[in-house]
Amino acid sequence: MKLYRHYKNKPYKYIGTAKHSETLQDMVIYETHYENDLGRLWVRPKDMFFESVNVGDVVTPRFYKVPLKIEATTEVNESAINLIAPLINESFGKWDKDWFYSTFNEHEKFYLAMAYIDEQIVGFKLGYERTAHEFYSWLGAVSPHFRGLGVAADLMRSQHEWCRKQGYKKVATKTQPHSREMLLLNISNDFQIVGTEPYGKDGLKIQLEKIL
Predict the structure, then answer these.
(1) How far is CA 36 from the centre of its chain?
(2) Alpha-carbon span 85 to 88, nearest angstrom
(3) Whole-angstrom Cα distance, residue 43 to residue 202?
(4) Inter-CA distances, 205 with 32, 99, 173, 183, Å
(5) What's residue 60's pLDDT?
(6) Biggest CA-to-CA distance, the chain
(7) Which of 84, 106, 107, 193 is the most exposed place for a label (fewest CB within 10 A)?
């Protein structure tokens, strides 16, 4: 997770470190995660970014990493589905309950990971067992306001760690060509493109697999 919060309560995305070209001092590059008329990208000496400051006689980090809490369950009940339905609607433009249950009811063994920031659900990843050796990563979404912070990557890691513990040898998934960020995330996490399949009027879906 790349979300940090300044002690004055403003959120920022941590981008990385760079060297000052003249002094070789380590600098942190970070980005506002809110509207700021003064600018979007900022830079500050690394030591200063990670130092503690005294605020009202209380020592506190100047910037602290906002924790991402992931809750996972294999008991995907109506309550859990109601939590992720708004994210599906927000990310895909609709929550088609009939379509969801037409697939959901065909399977028995699920794994659902849900990501929370400040007690707010911001993302999820849901999949099911295809065979004793293969797990299918079916649906996932991150709230648009929290994208680009590493939430999807952390959810994927949670899913794959669970799959390894269950003894699965492979994770499979599909994505559409226009879902560039998801395609790149999968490839950067060792998925291989293994084929395509027709997807109605929307063209093709790309099939991917990862050996665990």
Answers:
(1) 25
(2) 5
(3) 42
(4) 35, 17, 10, 11
(5) 96
(6) 63
(7) 106
46, 47, 52, 54 alpha-carbon torsion, rounded to 10°? -110
Residue 100: closest CA among 113, 118, 87, 119: 87
Angle at alpha carbon of residue 54, lines to 49 and 60, rounded to 5°: 60
Residue length, the chain? 212
Task: Enter the pTM of the model.
Answer: 0.90
Residue 6 main-chain phi, psi, to 5 deg: -70, 155
What span, in angstroms and rounded, lies between the C-alpha atoms of 16 and 30? Answer: 7
> Could you tell me if 28 and 49 are in contact, meaning their C-beta atoms sit under 8 angstroms apart?
yes
CB 1 within 8 A of CB 13: no
Per-residue pLDDT of the chain (212 residues; tens, 9 = 90+): 899 999 999 999 999 999 999 999 999 999 999 999 999 999 999 999 999 999 988 999 999 999 999 999 999 999 999 999 999 999 888 889 999 999 999 999 999 999 999 999 999 999 999 999 999 999 999 999 999 999 999 999 999 999 999 999 999 999 988 888 999 999 999 999 999 998 877 688 999 999 99
Walk across the sheet containing 26-32 and list its strands: 41-45, 26-32, 11-19, 3-6, 63-65
Only one residue has tokens 């849901």, namely 126
The pLDDT value given to residue 202: 66
Question: Token digits for 26?
Answer: 């380590």
In the chain, what is the straight-line distance between the N-terminal and C-terminal CA atoms, in Å? Answer: 23
